[in-house]
Every structure is written in structure tokens, then in C-alpha cells.
Amino acid sequence: MGAGHAHKLYRHGHSPVHALPPHCKIAAVFCFVLIVVSTPREAVWAFGLYAVLIAAVAGVARIPAGFLLKRLLIEVPFVAFAVLMPFVAEGPRVQVGWLSLSVSGLWGAWNILAKGTLGVAASVLLASTTELRELLLGLQRLRMPPLLVQIASFMIRYGDVITDEMRRMRIARLSRGFEARGVRHWGVLAKSAGALFIRSYERGERVHLAMVSRGYTGTMPVLSDAAAGRAQWTRAALLPLSALAVCLLGWTL
């Protein structure tokens, strides 16, 4: 897992957030998401404070708001599901203009939108300040099962390879005058998908044989054994601890 596999979510920088060890950031984001999910949905003000915390971390990390908001579009399918809840949920209803909406559905939609958006924002912020290789280092340092770390590392390394293979196949189709314009072209696309699967499988076999010939026995070497200092853990804990205080207030007020 060498360098050179930067992902599109990552934004290079030299901020204090970028400098934190990856396992500290992963643990902080995980705890933050758990706290957000544990917050009662009726504490609307608490979610506003969570958003302020995310914005503060983004400011320290020098991540532009546009960069962050653009990548939040990944949650659009969940937004579409949440929008339907007030119309299909049962229970007492409230009239909003000419629409009859379910009260429980409105709260459910708010719950999904607020907690989902904050969770996605925290995850995007983590990815924006941490390279993929560092994320794997952090997962390994947090004692995630080695097999899962290996699978993730292979996905990162060969995802671009498969994408390039798809691009070459697309160029080959275009050079022969093919352009998918309707249902009658689905057969060609299906055959292309099958060919891509066969090529990917064969390449995987060749890679595995190459790894075995170089001494691979089913386990990868330890990538890093660097431990984080107390000061680094303290800085990383500022976000979840602040969120915990907000959550406790949300349950007591």
C-alpha cells in the first residue's frame, strides 16, 4: 500500500486537523456520530450546535464550505426517503397548506435528515483531511480485523485499475462507432460488463500469484506502529467531548 492513491475527497493541507494521527481522527468522528445519534430528536437546538462544531472543525482544517457542501450530495437518496415519510406515516396529522402530513412522519424525517447530514458531514470532513493510506493506518492502529484492512487496501489499490479498464473498453466501443442510445444497445453493454468481470478476475488471479511468489502467506506486514501522544488525543477529543456536553443538555433540558 504505497503512496499515490489520493482520493477525490481529500484536500491537501497543513492544518492542525491534517496533522492529527489518523486513528485519533477516526475515533473522534466515530464517537461524535454515536453522540449525535443518541441525541433526542426533539432537541432541535442541539443539532444546530453540532453543525456549529462541524463548521468550526472545517474552519480549523481550512476546508471551504463549498467543498464540504458539494460532497454532502451523496446523501440525496436518504433525503428523498425522508421527504416521503410525512406522507406515508400513520398517526395524528397536521394540515400544512393543502397537504395533510403525519406528525410522527415529520419528526422521523427531521430525525433522518439532521442526524444523517451531520454524520455524513463528519465523515466527509474526516476524508477531506486524511489520505486513504493514512485511513488504513488508522484502522490498523485501532485493531480492526486484519482481513478487513487487507480487503480495503486491495479495493483502494485496484479500484483505479478497474476504472481505467472500463475507460479503455469505452474508448474501444466509441472507436468502432458504438454509442448507447436505447434499450436495443443494452445487450452490448451487458457483454461489456461481463468482459470487464472476466478481465478483473483474471487480473486478480495474476496479482495473487505474484504476491504468493513474493512470500505472501495471507497476512500483510504491519504498516505503522506509531502511537499518538496525549496532546494529540486531547485535541482529537475536543469534538466528541463538546458534542457530549450538548447531548447531555439535550436530554436534561
From TrEMBL:
Keywords: Cell membrane, Membrane, Transmembrane, Transmembrane helix
Subcellular localization, as worded in the UniProt entry: Cell membrane
Cited Pfam families: CbiQ
NCBIfam families: ECF_T_CbiQ
Any one GO BP annotation for this protein: cobalt ion transport
Organism classification: Bacteria, Bacillati, Actinomycetota, Actinomycetes, Kitasatosporales
Protein name, as recorded: Cobalt ABC transporter permease
PANTHER family membership: SLL0384 PROTEIN
Species for this entry: Streptomyces natalensis ATCC 27448
Transmembrane regions listed in the UniProt entry: 20-37, 43-60
CDD domains found in the cross-reference section: EcfT
Bilayer topology annotation: Multi-pass membrane protein
One GO cellular component, as annotated: ATP-binding cassette (ABC) transporter complex
